[in-house]
């Protein structure tokens, strides 16, 4: 390199300071869980499972544990017969609500544009593939 600077590998967190947030908040199933807890309040496991019908119990358990570890969800155990466990979004998790609101707004304005762009791209790809 002629400029005298080297291009050493850059830590992704330094290259993009929101990368750790994206990893935490936007990993698979996290947003539906947080959304459901924010919209519908405290819920038992089975209620969450019904609201997010396509998630398996194993994955829901794993995600809830991770969200509790990250401080985004509070798990409350009630020592009664039978035992009852409830989950609710924490204040830290609730602080993500404006971000989700902005994303929901962006989605309502732009998802159709994204879909059209995908269709245009795929049509162009098919035409290019026929030529080869």
Number of strands: 3
Helix-strand topology string: HHHEHHEEHH
| Tally of helical runs | 7
Strand order of the largest sheet: 1-3-2
Give me the CATH superfamily: Winged helix-like DNA-binding domain superfamily/Winged helix DNA-binding domain
Mean pLDDT: 88
Task: Indicate the low-confidence ranges by residue numbers.
Answer: none
Helical fraction: 55-70%
Radius of gyration: 21 Å
Task: Provide the number of structural domains.
Answer: 1
Structural summary, described in words:
By secondary structure, the protein is mainly α. The protein has a single domain (about 10-130), classed as Winged helix-like DNA-binding domain superfamily/Winged helix DNA-binding domain (Arc Repressor Mutant, subunit A, Orthogonal Bundle), CATH 1.10.10.10. The chain has helices at about 10-15, 20-25, 30-40, 45-50, 55-70, 90-95, 95-130, and strands at about 45, 75-80, 85-90. It has a three-stranded antiparallel sheet with strand order 1-3-2. It is extended. About 10% of the residues are buried. The model has no long low-confidence stretch (mean pLDDT about 90).
Blueprint of the fold:
Layout: H1 12-15, H2 19-25, H3 30-40, E1 43-44, H4 45-51, H5 57-69, E2 73-78, E3 84-89, H6 91-94, H7 97-131
Antiparallel strand pairs: 1-3, 2-3
Keywords:
132 residues, mainly alpha, Arc Repressor Mutant, subunit A, 3-stranded antiparallel beta sheet
Give a concise summary.
The protein has 7 helices and 3 strands, in the order H-H-H-E-H-H-E-E-H-H. It is mainly α and 132 residues long.
